[in-house]
Amino acid sequence: MGKQLLLENINTPGIDTMAGYRAQGGYSSLQKALKMKPEEIVEEVKKSGLRGRGGAGFPTGMKWSFIAKPEGVPRHLVCNADESEPGTFKDRFLMQHKPHILIEGMIISSFALGCNTSYIYIRGELLYVYHILEKAIAEAYEAGFLGKNIMGSGFDLDLYVQPGGGAYICGEETALIESLEGKRGNPRIKPPFPAVAGVWGRPTVVNNVETISATVPIINMGGDEYAKIGVGKSTGTKLISACGHINKPGVYEIEMGVPVEEFIYSEQYCGGIRNGKKLKAVVAGGSSVPILPADLILKTAKGEPRLMTYESLSDGGFQTGTMLGSGGFIVMDETTSVVKNLWNFTRFYHHESCGQCSPCREGTGWMEKVLHRIVEGHGKQTDVDLLWDIQSKIDGKTICPLGDAASWPVASAIRHFRAEFEEYIKNPQNIKDEKHYYNLRNQKAPVA
Amino acid sequence: MPKVTIDGKEIEVPKGTTILQAARMLGPDVAPPAMCYYSKLSKSGGYCRTCIVRVTKMNSQNPNPMPKPVASCRTEVMDGMEVVNYTSEQVLTDRKGVVEFLLINHPLDCPVCDQAGECHLQDLGYENGSEKTRYDFERRTYDMIDIGKNIKLHMNRCILCYRCVNTCEQLTDGRVHGVLNRGDVAEISTFIEKAIDNEFSGNVIDVCPVGALTDRTFRFKSRVWFTKPVDAHRDCKKCSGKVRLWFKGAEVLRVTARKDQWGEVEDWICNECRFDKKNVSDWELEGPSRISHHSVISQGHYELAKLKLDTGRQLKNLKEGKQKSTAKK
Amino acid sequence: MSKREIKFSDETLALIQRIIRRYPEGKQKSALLPCLHLAQMEFGGWLAPETMDYVASILKIKPIEVYEVASFYSMFNLKPVGKCVIEVCRTGPCWLLGAEDLVRHIEKKLNITVGETTADGMFTLKTVECLAACGNAPVIQVGETYHEDMTCEKTDDMLSAYRNRNEVVTHWDKKHVKAQ
């Protein structure tokens, strides 16, 4: 097991309380940060090479430096805790068991950005975690880490939690901002970007839970030291939420650069495939990223071992590679039907499309219907090409990345498993797994 | 002032101009189609994606192309920007994809739709669509909702352009409507119903690019191409009173706002002018209307409007290696 | 529906006032999502049009603004539901590990299909999208509680426990209003 910067002591009883967290050295990073200048903190984060842990992997320090600072206009830091990407549950795990690391990170980051009111937007399904955070925030106020003149530094910060209402799209930063304003989670058309006009039209930075929490060890150990962990531009540690057909599902903190093979088979991590089965495919970074068959996830097309880094996982582009994404690592064994799994994913995107722009609104539903027909045994051989064509017409044509996220799984499944689609369509009766997946969309409900 | 080149034609435009606005300044040979953007409404555009173009050069400092197609109605030009629209096979293919998406759940009930003949989706489908649909599933349907005696709502035909939402929001005080549900079952109906008392609500008929909102007082009276448009005006306390009357013989079947060459309303008109003034004696006639280039109404009736070349032909020209735009006058 | 007066309890009203103060002056609309959760908690687990109108009056916004938001988010029930809404995750990893079997099992056990409520008004069965608990798939959410690593047997136990408690269970649990 490598360095545990975020999950350290996560199993220690009481770590979710102020006293327990401080007993393990909690809030020491904040004390250090408040003695620094805000720009020095931004500099440390830049040096650390920290990249957005929500999925896009954009350098955090650079994102921070984009925030507009007009005179007299308040700025806001909003934490994106709308963790909804299928296969991803790292943020929930961290917030539930170690809420204070996020709060400490929020205070440090808010100080660095010059924000005096910050929000944590958590998905509505996680209301029980919402209450955990509320309690932790109350403790932080009591300890003088929030409120006026924090620890005599002259810095004021109010921190609030905001619950969502059940919409995957609110993980997109501008949809999240809309939702925080009490509106429908429709992504905004950019520009303007949130750094210029975000929540209530004010400059806003939106960062993932893990990203913000990572500022705590970064300030503690220094950016340079943090950057020493990992490989190349993938620095530091990353939380990976492993699930699917593995022996030991759960959240693991890895040092960037662990070989994928080691991650799947080592006892330290996933512990191999369940029930002695063989590995068939992996979706390495949440349902949106391209699925890769066993051979390509373990080794790149060039034959080099694939590592858990931004660069190595995307080696080969979408032809033979994938993405680190959010760290939602879904493992599928040899009994899995890629076709059915794809239908499940596509149904998800259809359900979650906000409906603003036409390619996503219409295209996701069309893909789901075609896949449903195939799964039900009524597919046509031309359906595979049709699916390919539909996804290519969604990809890159939409307002927000949900369109891309819906099309990549389709493209990659066809790219790597075309024969399986064709076989399924030809001989649906041969598909041993006779389960018929329930298909109910209970979202259309009359209002009045 | 920034200079932008679209399909090889350069133009200097005020700062803040979008690609679409610049293209319209260059003329219909260059301007992309728009189904949701409406220059008279703020915050419109960006949703339908039919106006997508490709930026082949970002600006004079940055010669790189933009990686994805952009909605021209929402992208501001930069100095030195180069854009391709009708000269790019890629853009035409992209747009064809968008048009297909707009059509898969559209009922294609043009034979019984009052909008036929002045429908922007018809034009778009004619210029960018396929002859056959690849969509063989049941089309989406909504329950019919009665929204009053003047306006007929066919939600099945709606392409969710949000124009009517913006119209009601921007022409009335306080917001009374929006969009319900999400994804491909989103709908506008319930809200329109509540906005209908407003004196300017009839304008939603004119802004609707399809037959989702039509004039109930004109319902099934005539195909639009059998009626003759005449510009007329009257003294109206509520609006400019400048309208277009649609005659069949000596009878006024319909009153609409006047529309410009992009199919957009010139002046909003009030419901009284639109629905209650159907006698010729109510109006001072000005003369036959100029009908926009794309309309079948102009066919054989008035002037031979300059028809935009259909995309199929442009695509063919491109494939045969011919130079762009062979538009004949 | 009975014509009883729709009014939040004093405790909840006080909580809403505290929540409104979290946003800048005039931006009280931001409190809409928390308010809708609280409304579901107080008014039987769903949002009737009158309930939404009431929330609009409290936040001083148009009823329409509430409808469009409530109909966008999947957690808000716009039709009456049973005392306990059983929400089974149906996405990706939960599906890989047998969520489908759980749904079939519950359907048979309660003699309802997804989206329906039992005749006694005790349970409503709903399928939901990824609950961010894929490591303990399959997962069922009831109110604020996640029931993880579910099997058909565990589901039976869970159902009888809720039946014995015989209380309205909502996402925002009442105990948290008192605690704050």
Give the arrangement of secondary structure elements.
The complex is a heterotrimer of chains A (448), B (329) and C (180).
Chain A: H1 18-23, H2 28-34, H3 38-48, H4 60-65, E1 76-81, H5 90-97, H6 99-113, E2 117-122, H7 127-142, E3 158-163, H8 173-180, E4 204-208, H9 209-221, H10 223-228, E5 230-231, E6 234-235, E7 237-244, E8 250-255, H11 260-265, E9 279-283, E10 291-293, H12 294-298, H13 310-313, H14 317-320, E11 328-333, H15 338-352, H16 358-375, H17 382-394, H18 402-426
Parallel strand pairs in A: 1-2, 1-4, 2-3, 7-11
Antiparallel strand pairs in A: 5-6, 7-8, 9-10, 9-11
Helix pairs in contact in A: 2-6, 2-9, 3-6, 5-6, 6-9, 15-16, 15-18, 16-17, 16-18, 17-18
Chain B: E1 3-6, E2 9-12, H1 19-26, E3 52-57, E4 70-71, E5 81-84, H2 89-104, H3 120-128, E6 151-153, H4 163-171, H5 189-195, H6 203-207, E7 213-215, E8 228-233, E9 242-248, E10 251-257, H7 271-276, E11 284-288, H8 311-319
Parallel strand pairs in B: 1-5
Antiparallel strand pairs in B: 1-2, 3-4, 3-5, 6-7, 8-9, 8-11, 9-10
Chain C: H1 10-20, H2 32-42, H3 49-59, H4 63-70, E1 84-89, H5 92-96, H6 99-110, E2 123-128, E3 140-142, E4 145-147, H7 152-165, H8 175-179
Parallel strand pairs in C: 1-2
Antiparallel strand pairs in C: 1-3, 3-4
Helix pairs in contact in C: 2-3, 3-4
What does this structure look like?
The complex is a heterotrimer of chains A (448), B (329) and C (180). Chain A has 448 residues and is an alpha/beta fold. Chain A is built from 18 helices and 11 strands. Chain A has helices spanning 18-23, 28-34, 38-48, 60-65, 90-97, 99-113, 127-142, 173-180, 209-221, 223-228, 260-265, 294-298, 310-313, 317-320, 338-352, 358-375, 382-394, 402-426; strands at residues 76-81, 117-122, 158-163, 204-208, 230-231, 234-235, 237-244, 250-255, 279-283, 291-293, 328-333. Chain A is globular and about 70 Å long. With 329 residues, chain B is α+β, with helices and mostly antiparallel strands. In chain B, 21% of the residues lie in helices and 16% in strands. In chain B, strand 8 and strand 9 form a beta hairpin. In chain B, helix 2 (89-104) packs across helix 3 (120-128). Chain B is globular. Chain B starts with a strand and ends in a 10-residue tail after the last helix. Chain C has 2 domains: 10-72, Arc Repressor Mutant, subunit A (Orthogonal Bundle), CATH 1.10.10; 84-165, Glutaredoxin (3-Layer(aba) Sandwich), CATH 3.40.30.10. The two termini of chain C are 31 Å apart. Chains A and B meet through helix 15, helix 16 and helix 17 of A and helix 2 of B.
